[in-house]
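Re: that backbone. Tokens:
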């Protein structure tokens, strides 16, 4: 089933196919990659769009605590609300992994146009010197 209303664009990260053309991300994959780009971009990182991105990178030196997890959740919810209008965020869970220096961020979301639900897990690395 064709879903051009969800978008087609260059894949992320940029890779080439066997003919030397850039690979594309289509439809739900385009949405997933967009979420990954939003989460992977710190606010102020893009010169022409200083407001674009997610505020989690302001928290990289925070201690792994329930407060930090709550702030990460809020920053992600706000960024996705602003920059990815094709989805509804259903749930965000933040769990510590690897001795507390990595937060595994699990995002359950639904693509509005198709009502298909997906999950994306994004690893966020805290600074080692502040993990406990």
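Recovered sequence:
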């Amino acid at each position: 089933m064709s879903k051009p209303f969800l978008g087609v664009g260059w894949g992320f990260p940029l890779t080439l196919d066997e003919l030397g053309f850039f690979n594309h991300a289509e439809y739900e994959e385009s949405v997933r990659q967009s979420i990954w780009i939003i989460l992977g971009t710190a606010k102020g990182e893009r010169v022409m769009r200083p407001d674009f991105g997610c505020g989690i990178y302001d928290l990289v030196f925070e201690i792994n605590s329930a407060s930090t997890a709550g702030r990460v959740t809020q920053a992600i919810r706000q960024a996705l609300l602003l920059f990815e209008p094709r989805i509804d965020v259903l749930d965000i869970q933040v769990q510590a992994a690897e001795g507390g220096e990595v937060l595994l961020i699990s995002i359950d979301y639904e693509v509005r146009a198709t009502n298909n639900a997906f999950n994306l897990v994004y690893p966020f690395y805290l600074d080692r010197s502040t993990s406990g």
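The mean pLDDT is 85. The chain has one domain: 4-130.
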